[in-house]
Amino acid sequence: MAHYVVRLARRATVVLLFALAAALGAFSGLLFASGDDLPQVSALDDYAPSTITRVFDIKGDVIGEFATERRVVVSYEQISPLLRQAIISAEDQSFEEHLGLSIPRIVVTALKDIVRGERYGASTLTQQLARNLFLTNEKTWERKVKEAMLTVQIEKRYTKREIFALYCNHIPWGHGIYGAEAAARFYFGKSARDLALEEAALLAGIVQAPARQSPYVSVERATRRRNYALQRMADEGYISAAQAAKAKQAPVATSGRPATGGFAPFFVEDVRQHLEERYGAKRLYQSGLAVHTSLDAGLQRVAETAFDAGLRRIDKRRGFRRPARNVIADQQTVDGYKHERWTRAIVAGDIVPWQPPMPDPARRVRPPPVRSCCASASILSRFRRRAMPGPGRRRRTS
Description:
The protein has a domain at about 70-250: Biosynthetic peptidoglycan transglycosylase-like (Penicillin binding protein transpeptidase fold, Orthogonal Bundle), CATH 1.10.3810. The chain is built from 15 helices and five strands. The protein has helices at about 1-35, 80-90, 105-115, 125-135, 140-155, 160-170, 180-190, 195-205, 210-215, 220-235, 240-250, 265-280, 280-285, 295-320, 370-385; strands at about 55, 60-65, 70, 175-180, 290. The longest helix has about 35 residues, at about 1-35. The chain is elongated, with a radius of gyration of 33 Å.
């Protein structure tokens, strides 16, 4: 019996070694095949991402912007330490220690994939950077192998500060915004170096899924992810537990989603057409041009204010017109209807769609008194009698 068990164990060992050798051979072949068409990491030495083309008026004030990726490139030192700590805590707490790949995270994630049958992310910041720079979000083994190889190359060539600066300048933050500086201006109307603790944690929380966790999409999800980032900062020792608790109680306060109309739209559009015709679309939308024009923004605002006031006077003279939309006809409920304009800040002179309050069904509306109706009818009949020609009166004719 013991002899039989030994023979079975030997055979199982041989089969296991053969399977392991085959897997290693397949993996080596995959590495060899993937290595031929890998992008050149050295291209990052001349990193020049798409940036915003800005149109300035005669006094140097910005009146328009054109971009496919709204980005403002900044250095490592221009990013708030709070934002750096929040991103590292929420996304990759061992960023300063690992060599691009976090083996413990990979093992734990692989076990989750096997046990639960779902794919979880175990990417470090460097892996996310490699994927956003050179690859796609396609979930295949080939892409993961290429991502790992590019990650190791990036870690060998650049310092941690350089990698982090590239990461913060390149990744998306939702709504066509790329990079920490553009995100800070878009969500809070300030530079990335001036962010408060709760603001930095909110931006760090958006990174994981910008399309779902933007405060302009879901305040609840944005708050939940912000609080997670704050807790991770406290666990890593960047802030105290009291600071984290206080920041968690702060409401999500943004600068309001910018209006889409823009300033002097017809003038800016004419400038855009001229630039595209002369320099081409790629240079216009990706090269970050600075365009200086002869427009005086102050005089333009005076002209637009006068024009708007004149239109409102004409509108009042025309009287009531039927609403442009009907909530019920759009198959929505009055209580559940939300207008996109309500998410933006309101300033003096804005015209904002208004939703009237629902009438209280318990409140009874009294009909007008009968006496008033009779009085009105009496007055009307007297007026008619006076207007009608009497028996001895003649109606003057011409």
